[in-house]
Design a protein that fits this description.
The chain is of the alpha/beta class. Helices cover 26% and strands 20% of the residues.
């Protein structure tokens, strides 16, 4: 049964955020809000969490997982970014974008694309997510909470708890955060390739 965390959207309660972070460190799989839509999240090195996300979303091994980072300095530990790409990403963060980039050795092999050795990274513009990342001290391994055969993510914490209570360990609810997933930009080939058009404006990458 998933524990329900009711978090204030503008002033997240430190004690509650600390409880969520402790559960993640203990290998919990949670659903949490972002600046685009709800996501599934777990500890960076959690093999169990990865497998559970794959099962819930029916993902194959070519799916790009995302490392949700607190800031640019943290992001830079996990992906290789040249100067041109640095400027493009810096101008778009924090925000509703996921960037696919070559992974560094800090990224567990099980998170990397099996052929490209890439991983997704993003810096969200969401008060609750940022509070959680600050408390956690490392990125959250994440994937959009979009269930198989459904076109839109769930937007309400109570609905997520009701439907996924048996497969999650926690649900963080800070109100509605929308249905549109992030815009995905692949920089792994050097040039910006728009993989998915979502909540982030794509004009600067076209």
């Amino acid at each position: 049964m998933a524990k329900y965390f009711d978090v204030h959207p503008e002033n997240p309660q430190p004690r509650t955020i600390a409880q969520v972070a402790d559960s993640i460190r203990a290998d919990a799989l949670i659903a949490y809000p972002t600046d685009s839509c709800y996501a599934l999240g777990c500890r960076l090195g959690s093999r169990d969490g990865i497998e559970r996300i794959r099962t819930i979303r029916r993902l194959d091994d070519r799916h790009h997982f995302t490392l949700v980072c607190q800031d640019f300095s943290q992001l830079g530990q996990f992906v290789r970014v040249d100067n041109d790409v640095f400027r493009a990403i810096k101008a778009s963060t924090p925000g509703s974008y996921t960037f696919i980039l070559p992974a560094t050795k800090e990224v567990p092999r099980m998170l990397q694309h099996p052929k490209k050795k890439t991983v997704g990274v993003r810096i969200p513009d969401h008060v609750v997510t940022q509070a959680l990342l600050t408390e956690l001290g490392e990125p959250l391994l994440s994937s959009t909470l979009l269930l198989p055969d459904e076109e839109e993510p769930m937007t309400q914490g109570w609905e997520i708890k009701d439907r996924l209570d048996h497969v999650l360990d926690g649900v963080v609810d800070s109100g509605d955060c929308g249905t549109e997933p992030t815009t995905v930009i692949d920089f792994s080939g050097g040039e910006a390739e728009i993989v998915r058009r979502g909540a982030g404006d794509t004009s600067r990458f076209e």
